[in-house]
Prior knowledge:
Elements: H1 2-26, H2 34-37, H3 41-49, E1 52-54, E2 70-73, H4 75-78, E3 86-90, E4 95-98, E5 101-103, H5 106-141, E6 145-148, E7 151-154, E8 161-163, E9 169-173, H6 181-195, H7 198-211, H8 216-238, H9 243-255, E10 266-267, H10 273-281, H11 288-305
Parallel strand pairs: 7-9
Antiparallel strand pairs: 1-3, 2-3, 4-5, 6-7, 8-9, 8-10
Helix pairs in contact: 1-3, 1-5, 1-8, 5-7, 6-8, 7-8, 8-10, 9-10
Amino acid sequence: MLHTVFYYTLNMSLTSCFVITPLLLVRLIRPLPKRIIYPLWTLAFLRLIVPFAPSASWSLFNFTGGLVKRLVTVESFNKMPITADLAMMNSIGAAESYIPVTYKTESLRRIFMTGSVIWGIVTAALLLTSVILYALTYGELKKAVLLRNNLYSSDMLLSPVLAGIFRTKIILPSSLNPDSPEGHMVVAHESVHRRRLDNLWRVLAVGITCLHWFNPLVWVMLKTFFTDMELSCDEAVIKKYGEAERKAYASALLHFAEDKRVLISSAFGRSGVKVRIVNVLNYKKLTTIGIIVSAIFLLAVAAALMTNPQLRG
């Protein structure tokens, strides 16, 4: 029922705040490359769409005091024994039972019933608007002219874009020669997006934000995720470049800073061009020791954020 889904969504949204905030802080650690930090956003995505997680003694949530009112195990749902300590954190504390959710008082039931209707209407409207805007935009981009392979040209664009989700197309503005040095850099950038399925991740991020539209921190996450997507893509392209090539790449970013924002598509000239230029010009390769230390640190962060408090009793 809608109010049950709404209750689970509220729980996941509250829990996610204690994942998104540490990730926002971790990304401020300057030596950590964004291409290492970027995949960590999947931790927040999982917290926002998967109610259950394993319990562990090293979980960050062991130190959040009264945030967790109760841990609801999977056994409480399916009445079958399981080997893993999977549980859902009930941080709201308004429910007596969970399938379907029954509330402690009648007034709480009315509040959540009304809230679930409002949430459902707004969520449906946001999802429908996103789909319509994407369909309209992609419909226009389908008019692009094929140059070769999966490379297209369009008079409609001021910035190169990677359009589509699974059958993606690299579409360049007609003013850009794909065989020029600048064109090679742009195509390399969009090719990284295509290999990583970044447009699929973009769709997922937008969809999750539509579900959690009432949580301001999720909107912050969405904006930061898009920025880290582009920063990490830049780093993947320039990691083999010398200083002169990095300056040329930064110049190309500035050239395409005038951006027609295409919904749910990656674009070369978007997402904080000033920040991206600074990141490109200041890029430094990590040493082997730096890579090992960074990997250990990030694995520890992932373990702390993706586990629930330890089950007791």
